[in-house]
Amino acid sequence: MAVTIQAPAPRAVPVPKHPRWSLGTPFSYMAAIVVGGITLVPILYVVVSGFRTPAQINTSPVAWPRPWVFTNYSSILSSSMFWHYVGNSLFIAVVATALTATTGSLAAFALARYSFKGRDALFALFMVGLLFPAGVAALPLYLWLKDLGLLENLMGVALPEAAFSLPYTIFILRPFLRAVPGELEDAAVVDGASRLRFFRTVLIPLSMPALTTVSILTFITSWNAYLLPLLVFNEPVHYTLPLGTASFQSTYSQNTAAILAFAALSMVPALAFFVLAERRIVGSLTGAVKG
Amino acid sequence: MASNQITVTGSLATSSRTDGSTPTGRTAVVRPVRRPRNLRRTFELTLLIGPALLLFTCFVLVPIVVAVRYSLYNWSGYGPLSDFIGLHNYRVALDDPVFRGAILHNFIFAALSIVFQLPLSLGTAMLLNRRLRGQRIFRLVTFAPYVVSEATTAVIWSLMLQPGGFIDVLMKDIGLGGLIQTWLANIHLVLYTLFVVITWKYIGFGIILFLAGLQGVPLELKEAAALDGATATQSARHVTIPLLGPTIRIWVFLAVIGSLQLFDLVWIMTYGGPANASTTMVTYLIYNGFQSTEFGYGSAAAVILFILCFMFALIYQRFALRRDTAGALTSMVG
Amino acid sequence: MQRFRKPTRLVVSGLTFLTLVAAGTSTASAAANHSALKAPDATVTLTWWNNATSGDLLTVFNNAAKAFHAANPGVVINNVPIQNEVLQNTKIPLALEGNNPPDIFQQWGGGREGTEVTSGKLMDMTAASASWIKSEVGAVASGWAVKGKQYGIPYDLHVVGFWYRKDLFAKAGITSTPTTMTELNSDVAKLKAANIAPVAVGSKDRWPDAFWWEYFALRECSLATLKTAMSTINLNYPCFVKAGQDLTTFIKTNPFNTGYLATPAQTGAGSSAGLVANGQAAMELQGDWDPGVMQPLTTNKNILNEIGFFPFPAVTGGAGNPTEVLGGGDGFSCSTQSTMYCPEFLKYIDSTPVQIQIAGANVGLPVNAAAASAVKVPAAKDAISFYKNAAYLQTYFDVAFPVNVGNAIDSAIANFFAGAGTPQSIIQAVAQAAKTA
């Protein structure tokens, strides 16, 4: 997604093709393989173990499936409860991410580029949310959600999750939004655009890497959230994937293989979201040449 | 990489005010007419910040304030809030050697993060920022652990770290069998074992954050440095890393706060044990507070945690982050 | 399936019963006669929170709910199984703190129940159960009474003892199970000589450690001291210090599996139950649920026949009676908002036919003596006969005490296992926690 504009005039002096950097490239590959291997192996372990039986796992915890058993994955994929869990998790994560991204970027814009009394205090107020462990607010939050009638309701999870994601969203976005030069803004205003229009048409596209980053973080935090859905939902049909995993684990408690298969399947949507979104991190800034 | 190109916009990094100076080319403009502008500005600001503030107050601030109130009572969670004991819970918590130990453990995690995870994430991001084949796959792979839930991470690693499990087998195979320990049962090692697992999980977060930041480091600068004869490492040290300053400072902040609030992974892998060797402040307050029907006490421990985080945030903001965010850009609104 | 016998006495309508119960007056017990199962005006749905998330017990409970509904068409029981730790630590406390507790929920009795009663949301079932509790449940029901009132009713019992591999004992040359600590120590030595890990313990979860110390306490303390200590929540007696010293001596003989400090009790093949199930350890001190827990952790289809039971041995010079038993049980409580059908449902659960099914589920011993013969696992049968002849049944301390004291003592004992803390520190932990109990 790189945008390059070919300039007609060639350089007068030929630029060396980064001679010093070619030494680093094999080193890069090696380091990438090592880091990649370390991060990948435990995950592969989960995925592959899903193809074994508990008996296989108990006798030899680490080995390839012998034989490959597909029933774990197939029975989970064909159970309607699993898709309920996926649907619930998806709805909540999308709503929370959308809410956080919009309200958070608007607020970060104001906190980054406007100067007004109490700006720092307001920023500090948002940061307070970062500093308090969510688990502690659980009881008051539960009682408050009950009063609002939001128990057993997907929004009862999405809204607090969006709220708890605001602090780090604003925290990460603010410097990025700040860093866009004032000249651009001046130019936009001279052209007759309002600040909000400037925000929408210039600032947001330029901050895509940061915006995508915070969206990914919010999505995944929501996807993996356990405590809040645990408090809000009692009906299994409302469960999100982590709750479903825990419930599955407790029902099939000793079937390690099926549990690992379930865990592997739970990772897929979040990984898919990341794959789709990560192009934006590196590809959208014009002027950068990337593969 | 020496293709002809024109940058359409100035890169982020060259304009960030890392040195706190005013941007070049801008002069202070005096606005003679203020009053109508103020109203409009207030309206704009309300529109911009209002929704976030409403959401935040409603679902974060209110529960926190209520939790602080609980901390002043001896309350089992059942029945009314009737036994007001003031700061007694705080005294008991600070007197408890287990809680003090938990605070120490959290700070150890924070320090270890900065010493080990920062160079690892930064270095890996810089390596992955090149034009490598399959680099998208590498990015996906290194980020995957972040996507896995903490519960699943705890289950996988507990399986791998048990006596005779994957790690022990691997070490035997590569000849390091003599160094095998009971990773999670050894009270001296358990904290560091947990740190390894945490690093595995969160390195992806650091990598994408730094990758995002690296996009703002313009190629021309690196090319210029190369022209001047800088090696890759020199270029990294004197060009890239300083320009990554703001991103690094964000990472450090989030990493320290994350270390202070560590819970899920520790809870499931070790339950804070053995003998409280891996207790963190949050595992302490969940076990001794909420699980023991001592809501007041748990809330007090949480407030202490909050105060520690707050102090760190204040100091950090004052010394490290201030120069990233001084002044205003949108001077049109004064 | 059994039809309910409807008493011909005068019946107080369900609504009045509810009002009286809600008023919370003690005259409720006098005024509310035994409720016949008068059909409700509109369908009543009772939400039932229990920890039977898997296995045979889940089937038993599902069947019980269906059968009760069939006998009482106006009443629907909605079975909601929830994982045990989540249920105990999060779901039930939260529900009792809010205003919407489930109608029927798991109840472990003791001081834990005492704390829950302070919420004012538990139904006093003294009157509702008076007619059948002695015949169906017996004396153990007192473990679920708070200040003499029946706020909970048990459905199964648990006994803590040693569950061991008969084949591994034979392999090590042990011909008879130990009856004294001296014999146990020598058996441990024999197992080590045969290269078998003698004892597995799920120290990570803390409560399995507590069984050890508590049994030493039972053996060292006279019954009078024990009872006083439990009721006053004060363990400051020399026999409890002695218990700690006994435990230290035992731990010093190095009897446990490698890495026992991080071994969980029940999850997966690496748990203490899994180790015994797969022959990697010879025995563990656990509750009678252990054979049922071991069964799915191994491919050995014959495991249930290979497990044996022996009680905690006698300690030389101890003032306690060696037939005293540490144990507990499971039960249910009703919320004040559930109807009279709730205690009726509990009566059904404790009736012989359902108790026979529960006995067959290998999760515990039935409270109803008539169902005792339905226990199939050989080792569990031994546990039952030991329990029947016990001089006294002491509830495990973390249930007998209020919740915060229970957590404190489990934690202190676990530290002790890891070599931190002294015999006194266990006593002090209880004293400290008792202040805010």
Description:
The complex is a heterotrimer of chains A (291), B (334) and C (437). Chain A is an all-alpha fold and 291 residues long. Chain A folds into two domains: 24-69, no CATH class; 79-283, Orthogonal Bundle (MetI-like fold), CATH 1.10.3720.10. Chain A has helices at 19-49, 54-59, 71-77, 80-113, 119-131, 138-148, 155-179, 182-190, 195-206, 208-224, 227-232, 241-251, 256-283. In chain A, helix 1 runs antiparallel to helix 13 (256-283). The longest helix of chain A has 34 residues, at 80-113. Chain A is globular. The model of chain A is unreliable at 1-22 and 283-291 (pLDDT under 50). Chain B has 334 residues and is mostly helical. Chain B has a domain at 97-321: MetI-like (MetI-like fold, Orthogonal Bundle), CATH 1.10.3720.10. Chain B contains 14 helices and no strands. In chain B, helix 9 (219-227) runs antiparallel to helix 10 and helix 13 packs antiparallel against helix 14 (295-325). The model of chain B is unreliable at 1-28 and 327-334 (pLDDT under 50). By secondary structure, chain C is of the alpha/beta class. Chain C is 45% helix and 15% strand. Chain C has helices at residues 14-23, 27-31, 55-71, 84-97, 110-117, 126-129, 133-136, 166-171, 181-193, 207-220, 223-232, 238-252, 272-277, 290-294, 303-306, 341-349, 352-360, 378-388, 397-400, 403-417, 423-434; strands at 44-50, 75-81, 104-107, 145-146, 149-150, 153-165, 197-199, 281-287, 307-310, 325-334, 365-366, 393-395. In chain C, the strands form two sheets. In chain C, strands 1, 2, 3, 6, 7, 8, 9, 10, 11 and 12 form a ten-stranded mixed sheet that branches. The two termini of chain C are 44 Å apart. Residues 1-35 of chain C have low confidence and may be disordered. At the A-B interface, helix 1, helix 4, helix 5, helix 6 and helix 7 of A face helix 1, helix 2, helix 4, helix 5 and helix 6 of B.
